[in-house]
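Subject: Protein record for review, amino acid sequence with backbone structure tokens
How to read it: Take the token row as a discrete description of the fold.
Enclosed: The protein record, placed directly beneath this head.
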Amino acid sequence: MKKLLSLLLALTLLFALIVVPASAKTLESAKAEKIFFYATNADGKDVLMKVIPLADLKAISHGQADGKNYYISSTDNYPTTQYCEARGVTIPELVDYVKKVTTVKGASALGYTGEDALRLMATDSYGNYNKIWTYNELYGVKRYYFEGLFKSWSTAWEIAGEDNSKFGLTMAEYNSKYKDSDPNYAAKKAVFDGGVVSVPILATESFSGRTTTDTLVASTEIGIADYIKANGGIAAGSLKNMLSDTWSLRLALPMTEADLYAAHRTSFDNFKWTYNVKLEQANAPAFKSLGTVAEPVASVAASGNTLTITLTCATAGADIYYGDDGAPQQLYTKPIAIDITGRNLASNPVTFYMTAVKEGYDDAGIITAKYPGLAPAFKTIYSGMTSAPLVFEANDAVSASDWTAWT
């Protein structure tokens, strides 16, 4: 039964589950310190195959066949050109590695081919898989590094307006609708003819920037023109001494022929800070989940200017990870102390994220917690009710259990 609640009770301090929208990417987003690798089985369960530390991925990372770093050319929303240099692993290599290190029986059925899809979650995605790529989209089409792009490109190369430049035309559409009237076709063809075939990687170490400037632009990419100038005017190899894991794990995506001729803004797809991936095979493997990990539970004790947060999980052997930046990557081993000296909790509540996982099991995903807790939705109070006692009642959409738990 739903109960009426006085305004005083609305100030009760509790934890509450909330939904947080994803924020725009900036240079300050947290790097991926590990990968939580899931695979969806034939029962539709997302089974944790392995939590892989970044250090382990670095150990198997590599450059191109000649030992040099991978080179990635792209165009950006400035709009301008962008260059990235990186080392890492291909997605098929990552899947093969997971098969070797996981303890899940039946993991040998994992693979990444054809219409198999990989969903990517970044540290600033707040529990959402914001990118999805099939094998055919990543590896089923030839991709290239275009050094010539940095000397020939201009904003006039963009075809069919900004939106299509961001999200793309196919080569067939370009050829049928725009090729004959494109004044830059010859320049584009010259760049294409000089392209070098490359492949997408998940970069453990990388560095990138806009090639036409030496300053920070729009809080997302630095200018690297001086690095290129110091390398004899050649972008390839100009950042070889600058690689860092700050932007790990980055999907470094070479351009396609259509990307070049339609002048897509491909930097949008070079997805940074990937820490959670889910493999969805077209023919889902038959391995079973060993069970569902219970949701982690947070409790708080306030003493003076310190909040002490304790996390528990009812599933034996489950690991709890937590974080305050949208990505629970820190392994929980003891209560967490948070200094709230001078903090206005009403306007700046303590928010953090947690997940309880166990290899071979499915789980509840990422849980968001806030202190003080937020009240459930109330029924609307109208100005005509001012002569009545001021009380709050739960909205009809609020379940009795949620209301009771909050009160």
Remarks:
- Residues 1-25 have pLDDT under 50 and may be disordered.
